[in-house]
Amino acid sequence: MIPKKSTTASRKQSSSAPPSSSSKGIATGAIAEIVSGNLKRLRVKRGLSLEALANLSDVSRGMLSQIELGRSVPTISLLWKVARALGVPFSALTSDSGSHGNLVLPADKAKVLTSAGGGFTSRALFPFDAERRVEFYKLTLAPHAVEIADPHAPGTVENLTVAAGRVEITAGGVAYILTPEDAILFAADVPHSYRNLGAKTAVMYLVMTYTEAIG
């Protein structure tokens, strides 16, 4: 793993690539339906109006209403904004009813969030059955694509390893280049990004740890 300081030029280059924050991502219908119910439940539990949550999350009231009604599919970056505003882990919005015991998660039935055009995908490698402090994901990033992430909840840590490809991870103003089997641990409560430096799809595995699972 090779650390290097980010430069102004490299930041400008990053902004020219298609970041997820400006993409209209898509999710499976199952996730969209789950998010619809969870968003309303968590918002009401915290005594927030749609307007109040819109102000906290920087997501429009109209968009939040459409998601709660199940009429709009949220993007990955939008879900992160809402989760942070509500003070909950990402899985609090994507959790389904509980299941116990051993559980196989077939690849052909995986619930995957993806950005427009499929440049970035995130597959949960855990069941959407409860809020949790630790989440495990498989990430893919198309050739030369970049994923720019907003800060997550305070204290959130990402532990990522590269399975295939050459990836640049930027966090806290410092960029790190990782090749297969390299791993990195970094604070994710600051702006961070993932960039595929190669001509083939990059594959990464990510463990996300929160300070606590807030109900």
Q: Could you outline the blueprint of secondary structure elements for this entry?
A:
Blueprint (H helix, E strand, L loop, with lengths): L1 E4 L2 H9 L9 E2 L1 H17 L4 H8 L3 H8 L7 H11 L4 H4 L17 E3 L5 E5 L9 E8 L4 E4 L7 E8 L2 E5 L2 E5 L4 E5 L4 E5 L5 E8 L6
Antiparallel strand pairs: 1-9, 2-3, 3-4, 4-5, 5-12, 6-11, 7-10, 7-12, 8-9, 8-11
Plain-language structure description:
Helix content is 27%, strand content 29%. The chain has helices at residues 8-16, 29-45, 50-57, 61-68, 76-86, 91-94; strands at 2-5, 26-27, 112-114, 120-124, 134-141, 146-149, 157-164, 167-171, 174-178, 183-187, 192-196, 202-209. Strands 2-3-4-5-12-7-10 form a seven-stranded antiparallel beta sheet. A five-stranded antiparallel beta sheet has the order 1-9-8-11-6, with no helix packed on it. It is globular.
Helix coverage percent: 25-40%
Integer-rounded radius of gyration: 17 Å
Distance between the termini: 37 Å
**CATH homologous superfamily grouping:** Jelly Rolls
Strand proportion: 25-35%
Task: Tell me the name of the CATH class.
Answer: Mainly Beta
- Going by helix content, strand content and strand pairing, the class is alpha+beta
Question: Which regions are unreliable across 5 or more consecutive residues at pLDDT < 50?
Answer: 5-27
- CATH architectural name: Sandwich
Order of helices and strands: EHEHHHHHEEEEEEEEEE
- The average pLDDT value, as a whole number, equals 80
Number of helices: 6
The shape, in one word, is globular
CATH topology: Jelly Rolls
Number of domains: 1
> Count of DSSP E strands?
12
Please summarize the sheet with the most strands. Answer: 7 strands, antiparallel
Strand order of the largest sheet: 2-3-4-5-12-7-10
